[in-house]
Fold:
Amino acid sequence: MSFNSTSALPTARKSGPAGWFQGIGDKLSEMPLGQRIIASLLAVALVAGGIFAALQLAKPTLAPLFTGLSSTDAAAVVEQLNSAGVEYELQDGGTTILVPDEAVYDQRLSAAAAGLPSGGGTGYNLLDEVGITSSEFQQDTTYKRALEGELAATIGQMDGVEQASVKLAMPEETVFASEQGTPTASVFVSSPRGDLNNQQVQAIVHLASASVEGMEPTDVAVVDSTGKVLSAVGEGLVDLSGGDGERSAAVTANVQKVLDNLVGAGNSTVAATVATTRSTSETVSEEFTTPEGGVQALTEQTATEDYTGGGAPAGTGVLGPDNVANTGTGATGNGNFTSGSESRTNAVDKTTTSTTTPAGDVERQTVAVAVDAAAAGGLTAEQITGLVSTAAGLDEVRGDTVTVEIIPFSTAGAVEAQQAIEAAEAAEAAAAQDALIRDVIIYGIVAAVLLVGFVVWMILRRRRTVETLEDLGETAPAPAMLDRSTSPDTGQMPVIMPEPPTQALSAVAPLPVMPAPLPEGPSAAQKVHHAAQTDPAKTAEMMRAMMEAKELA
Structure:
């Protein structure tokens, strides 16, 4: 039996990717110009996003191989990586080398086998190059260079220090202790994040002074890359804030916190100044006091003479100091002679006090406080003075002073301040809105790209379904009737008869016999007719399966 159709067969489409692209082109050709432009842009964005994602996924993850390398070591490590064919990346001005994560440990072992990093030829490894024929001067110079290199490497490992250089001035040894000089050190540091704080400078000073015998912390000078002196020889640590700013700021913050809780934020103003000593000083004092239990003599001498004569001349008496005779008084008449000598040394208590004042010790502290009269309420200046003195840690013996004034604050700038706050809030809100719009645009583009991809996939899937139906010869509408002329006894099932055909199709082999219709209810032919009208694609698939089964049989 053969099928006849009333319409011509459509042009067969190519299979595979070529057919997909052809289907996409046909679909685009049916769209208006505006939709075609939007679809093209979305397709380009999809392709660009895919390429970018592929490049990011293909890019290896880099990890630091070495950091803080000298130029010599960095060049040697790069040469080794080039010879090994390992990809690398330089950062931090060439001092940091990054390699793929999986090659970090292998390259570190290879560098260690080659003696890298060598520290730039400094440190105690210089002592390995000293031969037995070296002079004493060469040995001393090499030792000094090695010590400088070790100190520079150690200081360079501190947080906040990018590079460090140390120079030592070692005096010649002498047998005369009074003529022995004191070693000094100068440290040059560079910090990538700005100035070093006092604690970091103090750590550098103590590290350098403790590494050299006979060196004191005041013998170390520290200078940064901007030329600022952080520690001076003979003076010690220099205040980095230029006015004891760190301590003044701490005192101001403590007092301001107390006043904010007392009168409310913005109702008080605090200004504190802390003056510290700039150099180290030593004071020696002696005090003499009377011992307990009364005065006690350490040495005592007493000599007394008394002579009474009967007109004889007076004698010269005993010898006095320096063998000089004491000439007494007397007369030739009823002569009389008297002589006396007394010497006493009393014991007293003696106290000697030696006081050493280091650099940076608080010398004087002053605090000034102004409180708004409208917020002070029933507080008095004496009450506030007591609180401020305790919070700031003032010492009257040292000469610290505090001044508290309760006065009305000016409100001239309140409106401008409120407007500035509102403008800042508006700017922040606008920035947040811009960020939200940007995120929405990005997410919208991603969603549009995904939607375009889904639509293209649905179009291609539909094209493949249509091509499958065309291969089965389904080019006409659903049949309107069934041919009941064939008897079930002939061994052939009733087939679907389409509308009057205009072109004959190839014959179809006989199909298996369908069961006879039931006495009641719709017949098999009606069921087939209904199925062909409601789901032509499924009906065509069933027919193709039945034909394939017939051919296999």
Observations:
- The first helix runs from residue 17 to 30.
- The longest strand covers residues 296-308.
- DSSP finds twelve helices and 19 strands in the chain.
